[in-house]
């Protein structure tokens, strides 16, 4: 056995899918380094020229993705006009949105101000990214909707950015990453949750990010695979923190989407939390319900990655636990681990559940008519 | 709802269990601070008097367990002659071994040299703990078997300690913790695996430990519950590291037991690893089989904690995935989260599986006639 990174079908060979779908994880990129500059105050042009950026640094650098997949993306996804994968709307339309019948595509920009240590710069870059999403993407293709990116370590400025976008139908969610300076339930992040609830936007929590700590409690692993699968453990701790700090008790209308970290771990995490909670409720008296109840009511989950058990029944049992109404289809386009829409669900799913999974859950969550 | 820490039944009200059982996680304690001194060279008496100990330090200190459960243990487990819970053989016999019909009790000493930064001291303390296990426990009650504790950060000295105990039937396994200076698959720990395979002892990997890093990739959580449930995430990263570094390829006869971190997360971790491995095998070409195959063949799992799903079927499906022949019963006596033997398995388990779970799997794994 000597499996290599699989080649991806090129645009021409895409099989397509007949029913309209929502793709809840699309990553748009800048075509050039300077593409963001028109959206940034002049002050920051000079600052970036003089100081560059200071990010939370660590051994992550240089190895977030296999090198053989440049820009973490499909090698067939380079736009013909140049620029990195995901940087051309017309090529995204031709390669992905049109052939795959994407009726709703949620943009999750990743290289934003999140993770920058200068919080004023972080906020300026995030705000610029939000303007850029409108001008380059959502105003040009009504199928695409943006995510409000925020300087997440500065809850107050992040909340201001969210309120600035209130009522703007170019955006359907706020975007956070799961690996931060502190676990996501901590109070420094509460202004974000307060603002998101107030303006009625769900919060997507996408895997990745970096806050200075290694991805394991025992330091640095050796392999990309460990880093990648480790993001599921990050997401587990983030979700436990959100539940146990009482975020969903404090913000009862908040909806969150766990993006790109799998969901097979959700039931066992909830079972364990419930069992411990039954005996240690007095440590978290602000919780009025069992941890599993907050998880079931407040959390949505995207596929890509979707766990792939040997037994189809195991997959269905897992989905039944989280709820067919809580699962959202996502491709992760143009990243290398993209899921082909027509191949992601095994046989044996009812038409109603397929329809909910591929489109209706997302339309309902994101308020798309 | 205002659940407090539940009181435990006292010795007199223990329900007992009719069939003989193996308890694969019993924690013996020292009755006094000085109890270990007879097993330590004089050199270390003076050293401890002058320098004390230097452990990997962090915010763990002072909060590994709820304070209301002193010594992390049942309040009804104090021996009548004084000393902390778990420090009296006669009281352990009276309260636990006799009424619960324990035919095999595996001792897992926790406050050992593991985690001390002076590796010579760590090795001396571990060796003393091993001598103490024989003299105080296993030579006095043939139902009890010890675990060889080792200075795990110094693989070479740890391997020497394991070889020193080769063939000594007082011991049935080597004991490691899951949270260390590096992930457990790293080569610094390989001499331990080599020696354990050579002398034919399985390795128990018990939750807890500390190597300087916070328990989440986003720093320190607020609650004991997060710390406790977080150990399952530590165990997941440790297991991924063991598999991906090729430990089971290099040491094909090695058997490992995951102790006190649950097992509900095992299938979804294996599914995810298999899926990523299928595409990124070239990063870990030393692996000849799918990650799930190493996990199924090389890993045993103890209960306490056993996840407690709402649906009994979900529990059974999880156990079927890991294998009824791989599950070992454990109480965690005398710790506060002790599981009462007669109550741990739900109805609906076949007699053969009950027998395997309560006794036969452990006897076979640990080589007890």
UniProtKB/TrEMBL annotation, chains A, B:
Residue runs in coiled coils: none
What Pfam family does this protein match (any one)?
Amidohydro_2
Q: Where is the Amidohydrolase-related domain?
A: 23-368
Question: What residue spans carry the region label Disordered?
Answer: 62-91
Any one Gene Ontology cellular component term annotated for this protein: cytoplasm
GO: which molecular function terms? carboxy-lyase activity; hydrolase activity
Q: Does the keyword Lyase apply?
A: yes
Write down the InterPro entries for this protein, in alphabetical order: ACMSD, Amidohydro-rel, Metal_Hydrolase
Which keywords does this Swiss-Prot/TrEMBL entry list? Lyase
According to its UniProt entry, the protein's GO biological process terms are: secondary metabolic process
What superkingdom heads the lineage?
Bacteria
PANTHER family recorded for this chain? 2-AMINO-3-CARBOXYLMUCONATE-6-SEMIALDEHYDE DECARBOXYLASE (PTHR21240), ISO-OROTATE DECARBOXYLASE (EUROFUNG) (PTHR21240:SF28)
**Protein name as catalogued:** Amidohydrolase-related domain-containing protein
């Amino acid at each position: 056995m000597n499996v290599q990174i699989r080649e991806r079908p090129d645009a021409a060979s895409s099989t397509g899918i007949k029913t309209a779908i929502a793709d809840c994880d699309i990553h748009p990129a800048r075509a050039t380094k300077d593409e963001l500059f028109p959206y940034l105050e002049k002050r920051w042009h000079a600052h970036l020229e003089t100081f560059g950026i200071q990010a939370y640094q660590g051994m992550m650098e240089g190895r977030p993705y296999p090198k053989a997949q440049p820009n973490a993306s499909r090698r067939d996804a380079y736009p013909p006009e140049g620029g990195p994968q995901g940087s051309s709307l017309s090529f995204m339309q031709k390669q992905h949105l049109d052939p795959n019948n994407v009726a709703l595509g949620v943009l999750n920009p990743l290289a934003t101000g999140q993770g920058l240590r200068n919080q004023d710069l972080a906020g300026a870059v995030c705000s610029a990214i939000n303007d850029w999403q409108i001008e380059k993407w959502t105003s040009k293709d009504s199928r695409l909707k943006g995510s409000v990116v925020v300087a997440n370590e500065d809850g107050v400025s992040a909340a201001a950015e969210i309120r600035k976008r209130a009522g703007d139908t170019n955006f359907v969610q706020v975007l956070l990453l799961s690996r931060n300076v502190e676990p996501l339930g901590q109070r420094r992040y509460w202004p974000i949750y307060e603002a998101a609830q107030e303006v009625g936007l769900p919060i997507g929590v996408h895997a990745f990010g970096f806050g200075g700590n290694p991805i394991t409690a025992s330091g640095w692993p050796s392999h990309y695979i460990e880093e990648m699968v480790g993001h599921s453990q990050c997401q587990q701790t983030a979700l436990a923190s959100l539940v146990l700090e009482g975020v969903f008790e404090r913000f009862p209308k908040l909806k969150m989407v766990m993006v790109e970290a799998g969901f097979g771990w959700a039931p066992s995490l909830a079972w364990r939390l419930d069992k411990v909670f039954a005996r240690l409720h007095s440590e978290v008296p602000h919780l009025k319900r069992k941890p599993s109840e907050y998880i079931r009511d407040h959390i949505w989950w995207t596929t890509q990655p979707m766990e792939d058990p040997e037994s189809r029944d195991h997959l269905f049992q897992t989905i039944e636990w989280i709820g067919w109404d809580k699962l959202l289809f996502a491709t992760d386009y143009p990243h290398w681990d993209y899921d082909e829409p027509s191949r992601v669900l095994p046989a044996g799913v009812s038409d109603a559940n397929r329809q909910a999974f591929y489109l209706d859950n997302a339309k309902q969550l994101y308020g798309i008519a």
